[in-house]
Amino acid sequence: MRKDGKLLRVLVVDDEPLIREVLCRFLDKNSSAMAVGSAEEALEEIRTQHYDLCFLDITLPGMMTGLDAMKIIKELSPNTKVAIMTGALLDEAMKEQVEDFAYTFIEKPFSLSDIEEVADRVAVTLNQQEPL
Q1: What would the pLDDT profile of 14-27 be if each residue is shown by its tens digit?
Q2: Rounded Cα distance, 45 and 86, in Å
Q3: Is 104 helix (H, G, I), strand (E, B) or coil?
């Protein structure tokens, strides 16, 4: 939760329904979470709603990867923190993209404490940016 009483708004983007369900259920305890299964759906959400944090899988169905979506999310919503998630090996070009555009990187399989730590860090950052 944020200082001003507003919940952290989180978007989960993953092609695995179980990951979406588990993360949303877990995040909904202390934030407001929404989940989608593709990069295209994620961009539609970002265009219509503000999200403080986006957990974004790299491997997604459709025409776009998570890395493609990450760059567009940063253009559409520069204040949204993007946490890239993947179990795939990253080549050097992919690592550079993650370093340049992502807030953090989470390797799959991850624990819910990894997710909580990122959400807590983002909430603290947002609280520090808000006027008292």
Answers
A1: 999 999 999 999 99
A2: 21
A3: strand
